[in-house]
Amino acid sequence: MELGSKILKATAVAAGLSTLAGPVLSQDDYPARQVSWVIPFGAGGGTDRLSRLLTADAESIVGQPVMVENHSGAGGTTGWLHVLDQPADGYTIFNASPTPLVTILTEENSPVQPEDIAIVGYIGAFASIIVVRGDEFPDWDSFVAAAAEDPITVGGTNSTLLGAANTLSQAGVEVIYVSYPSTGEAVTDFLGGHIDVVTTTESTAATIVPENGIALLNTSSLPLAPEIDEALGGNIPMSRDLGYTGMASPRWVGVHPDTPEDIQADVAELVRKLAMDPAVREAWAAAGEPIQYMAMEEARADYKALIPALRSAVKILE
Question: Looking at the 3D structure of the chain, how many domains does it have?
Fold first, then answer.
C-alpha cells in the first residue's frame, strides 16, 4: 500500500456533548486529564521512539500530558487487549503498525479482531529496510547467492518481516523468518550474531548503519527522504529498482470501538494537533521518518482496504 508523502486535511471535530459512564465532557473539556498512549511493543523500537517524540511536549500542545505506555507481547495483541479493557472514554489511545494485524490474521482463534478498534487517524508510514553485515553480504547479488547455498535467518517484527518477505518471495529467495515482539529485541540479536539479517524501519536502520551493518534494500513502495538515504549510505536500492513491487506500512491510531463518536472526533483532533505540530514534525524528520498524517475518515477507508490486502500477504510468512 503506497501512502507516499500524502498530507490530507484534518477531519472536522464533531460538536455537542457525550454522556459517558463518568462525567459529561464537552469538546472544550477534552482532554481534561492525562491521556495514555498505548503501544503494543517494547522499549527501544521504532514505534516506541517515535511515540515518545510525538508526545514529549503534549501538555503544551493539547493542554494535558500524554504518557506512552508499553504493553508488549503476543505479537502485539497484548497491548490491544489492554486498550479493550480500559473505559471507552478517549483517555486510552492505541498506536500500532500492521504487526498486531498480521498476528491476528495468522491465528485461528485470536482474542481480538481487526474491527475491534475505532480508527482516528494515521500518523505515518514506514519502510522495511533489510540490514545486513557488509562483510557477509556486500550487495544484493551476494545475498541472493548466499541464500541459495545456506539457510539465512531474517529477523524483525511482523510488520517489517512482511515487507521483506513480499520482495524476497517475488525474487524467489528462500530464507528462515524469525518473528520478534519488538524491533529492539531483533536488533539486539542481529548485533549479537544470533540472526544473519534484520528488517527494521528506516529510523531504526539509521541507528545500526554504518557502524554495525549496511542497508541492503528498501523493500517499501516509499522512497527514502534524501537525508535518510544519505545517512544509510546513499543510493539505497528499492524493490522496484530490482523489478519487484514494494510494500509500505501505516502507523495507525485508534481508540476503544465503543467510544462515543463525538469523543472519537475529539481524540482525532488531539492526534492531528500532535502530528501537525512543527516541533514534532521536525523531530520525526530528524529521527528518519517524516510525519505522514492522514485524517480520520481517510484513514478509516484505508484501514478497511488494508485488511484484505494483509490477509493475502501474510500467507507469504506462513
Answer: 2
